[in-house]
Amino acid sequence: MGLQSTFHAPHGGADFLGWRKTRAGTTEIIYDDGVARRMVWRVASAQPSEDRIADALRVAVGALRVVPTLYDELKKRAISIERIAG
Q1: CA-to-CA distance for 84 and 38, rounded, in angstroms?
Q2: Are 55 and 69 in contact (CB under 8 A)?
Q3: What is the pLDDT of residues 24-59, one digit of tens each?
Q4: What are the helix and strand counts (H, E) for the chain?
Q5: pLDDT per residue over 23-32, tens digit each?
């Protein structure tokens, strides 16, 4: 089964979370609320677990407060990030 890299809010909101690999090989996490807010973070570790990132994004996008839940879920999984946009 393939690994999902994009997630949309199941509760009818326009919230979007996703992760991507850049040309340089780094992993980035993207959040967009569908209206005015877009944020991008770079994953700080060199070889992050894509499974753990996908799990954290899946849980966060299902919450009513997506960004705070995302921070909590990444912290639980020891995934360090640095904000680069938004």
Answers
A1: 11
A2: no
A3: 888 999 999 878 889 999 999 878 888 999 999 999
A4: 2, 5
A5: 888 899 999 9
